[in-house]
Amino acid sequence: MSAILVTGASRGLGLEFTRQYLHSGESVIATARKLNEAKALLELKANFPSTLELRELDLSNEKSLNLFFQNLEDLKIAKLINNAGFWGGNDQGLSGCSAEQWMKTMQVNVFAPFFLVQRLAQRCEQIINITSKMGSITDNSSGGNYIYRSTKAALNMVTKSMAIDLQAKGITVIALHPGWVQTDMGGKRAPLSVEESVSGMLAVIGGLTIGDTGKFFAYDGSEIAW
Question: What is the mean pLDDT of residues 40-68?
């Protein structure tokens, strides 16, 4: 049996991905950095004991990544949702960025998704990297936010290369922008609810074919310029 793997599932988009997939009858492997603190995930596990598997995974920790890979055995992954992400702090202006914070954000937003795909690609049918329109160079008209923008731009480039390298194997790889969403990162002023964003993204994912590989989509199905 194949499952859907969702990273960063303790809250926000990852939690809603997990919830909506479970309610549609799918089997899900959901990861969280600290499972004992992921109360909403644990409640879902109680309601879906046979179709939800919880795994602890700290994407900034190499030992945690290695342990995660060891415990996956031969599971086939229908969809890998690389959802876990890090904002990078509030001071991301030209004079405010720190190398330490930048590297931490790069580790979670770029390195971790890459190494997950490196180890799991042969088991996957589709790879969905949750990115942001803020990583679009074409769309950048306001500047600033150097850390977050650059890491998402890097993830976009990684996604494009993955799509090219894996196309011959029939694996679809896309970058997917969830919109401006009412999460801890997006804030209360965001126009989209978590439910609306994820419902839209699931519709996009559900309609993917190999012909879509290497594209950058928004939650509403529109294509975004790199």
Answer: 94
- CA pair distance 96, 90, nearest whole angstrom: 9
- Whether the CB-CB separation of 192 and 180 falls below 8 Å is answered with yes
Interstrand relation of 52-56 and 76-82 (parallel, antiparallel or unpaired): unpaired
Q: What is the mean pLDDT of residues 160-184?
A: 96
* The 2-6 sheet, strands edge to edge: 52-56, 28-32, 2-6, 76-82, 124-130, 172-177, 216-218
Token pair of 89 as six digits? 């702090």
The whole-angstrom separation of Cα 64 and Cα 68 is: 6
55-112 pLDDT, tens per residue?
A: 999 988 889 998 998 877 778 899 999 999 999 888 899 988 999 999 999 999 999 9
> 3: phi > 0 → left, psi -120 to 50 → alpha, else beta; which?
beta
Three-class DSSP category at 76: strand
Residue 79, both tokens: 């969809």
In 3-state terms, what secondary structure has residue 224?
Answer: coil
What are φ and ψ of residue 58, in 5° steps?
-100, 105
| Helix 112-120 with 62-70: angle, nearest 10 deg | 20
The DSSP secondary structure of 138-160, one letter per residue, reads TT--S---HHHHHHHHHHHHHHH
Whole-prediction pTM:
0.95
Cα-based distances in Å from 126 to 134, 163, 197, 201, 207:
23, 10, 19, 14, 11
